[in-house]
Amino acid sequence: MAARGCCPSCGSAALVEDAHYAQQQLVCAACGCVLAEGLLTTTYTEEEHLREVTYSQSTGQKEHLSRCLQRGIRRVRDLCKVLQLPTVFEETAVSYFQRALQHTSFHLVSLEKKELLGGCCVFVTCRQHNWPLTMGTICSLLYAKQELFASVYLSLQKELGLSVPALSLADLVKTHLNSFRLFQHAADIPAPFVEDKEKMVARTMQIVELASETWLVTGRHPVPIVTAAAFLSWQSLQPAARLTCTFARFCKLAGVDLPPPAHLRLKELLEILLRMASKLAWLRVFNMDKKTVVKHIGDLLQHRIFLLKNAFCLEDEEEQCAAAPSEGSPSSPPAAGGAVQEKGHPLEGKRQREGSPRPLLPPCLINPRKRLRTAALSASDSAITGDEPISDSEIEQYLRGPEEIRAFRKAKAWQ
Predict the structure, then answer these.
(1) How far apart (Å, rounded) are the C-alpha atoms in residues 289 and 19?
(2) Residue 142's Cα: distance from chain center in Å?
(3) DSSP three-state, residue 36
């Protein structure tokens, strides 16, 4: 057996202490034999006292988190470069990502959610700096589902206590139209279909403002409304060559998806435009329909305030519209005469109803959805009115104490 302080293999006294990762080891410098191993420690205060710790607190776990952090920071910076964001945005997004990765709520999440965490930090930064960026753009760059991205985004906003302002409708219009492919000549896009970007954005903004003033935006997803407004503005700028183009083909040429509710939003916009056109003097001589009204969108938008006031009952005028007597009322002689005239000429009465101003109400009140019918009451239930007399045996059930019972019997005896 070798003496103390000598190598048991070769007998050399050249023993040195070597720190291999986080473990202190006693090694022979002559033959490389390991004589003793230290405890598993971290690289912080436990290193000095050789205090044994778990692996989750060891150097190996710290290095793993560091690699994860570095990889995430690279993804955030690459995403900012793709979006051509300023340097200030990039540094802010990186700081958010570092804070999020240090939070305990994001330690045990799946790898897919950790990869989306960097995109959420970029999205939050852009919203805070009023930079027009949609969630769909981020998801397309990360090849992620919007539902999963939204859940990570809400978790990040809640855990870090971030204040994120909502994206305005004007910024959304500019951002959504930036992805259109109709602003540059291409082989698959006919020449008459190419449009100037600034003109189309300006006209789309006016139509979206009109939709907002007529209750078409409130409580609804904005993308279908913006898509329908962009289609109408694109058609109205060169109606001769574009009226034959369908909504589906327009979205296909522009390279954007056609949301299912966009057809309904387009129908509602056209109904508003037709009602406005009926109040414009030089358009009354024409038989306007949903295709021909597109040609005059520029004139309708130019006189938007005047036409809305005359086509609809606005604010204080709504009470006057509601108080006006209905057609065909027996108490109103002109209405009765109008009813007779309508009986003789059915189209005349319909034109009068369409031309009369109606209250400007949300579409959900004009065309309410069908509600479930309640079950019909039975004959015995429908016969109950609530005015039936209460018998003596039933009234005793409502008396709770003996004193009340005695008072009731005493009052009955006096009758």
Answers:
(1) 86
(2) 19
(3) strand
State the CB neighbour count (10 A cutoff) for residue 207: 26
* Buried/exposed 73-100: b ≥16 CB within 10 Å, e otherwise: bebbbebbeebebeeebbebbbebbeeb
The DSSP 8-state label assigned to residue 11 in this structure reads -
Please report, for residues 319, 396, 400, 408, the alpha-carbon distance to residue 413 in angstroms, rounded to integers and kept in the order given: 59, 15, 20, 9
Token look-up 């954005």 returns 201
| Cα angle value 217/222/224 (rounded, 5°) | 105
Q: 188 — alpha (psi -120 to 50), left (phi > 0) or beta?
A: alpha
Instruction: Say if residue 182 is exposed, middle or buried (CB neighbours under 10 Å; 0-12, 13-18, 19+).
Output: buried
Integer Cα distance of 384 and 84 in angstroms: 73
- pLDDT tens, per residue, the chain with 415 residues: 333 578 877 888 888 776 654 456 777 877 777 776 555 555 445 445 555 554 445 544 444 456 778 888 888 999 999 888 888 999 999 999 988 888 888 887 888 888 899 999 999 998 888 887 878 788 888 888 888 998 999 999 889 888 887 767 887 888 888 889 899 888 889 999 999 999 999 999 999 999 988 888 887 888 899 999 999 999 999 999 999 999 999 999 998 888 888 999 999 999 999 999 988 888 888 888 888 999 999 999 999 888 888 888 654 444 455 455 444 444 444 444 444 344 444 444 444 444 566 677 777 777 776 554 555 666 666 677 767 777 766 666 665 677 777 777 877 777 6
SS3 content of the chain, % helix, strand, coil (to 5): 60, 5, 35
- Phi, psi of 294, deg, nearest 5: -65, -30
Helix (H) or strand (E) holding 28: strand 23-28
Cα separation, 349 vs 355, whole angstroms: 10
Phi/psi of residue 25, each to 5°?
-125, 145
The DSSP annotation for 377-390 comes to: PPHHHHH--S-PPP
For tokens 């809640």, name the residue: 158
With a threshold of 0.85, does the pTM exceed it?
Answer: no
Shortest CA distance to 233 belongs to which of 210, 252, 260, 215? 210
The tokens describing 4, both together, are 């103390």
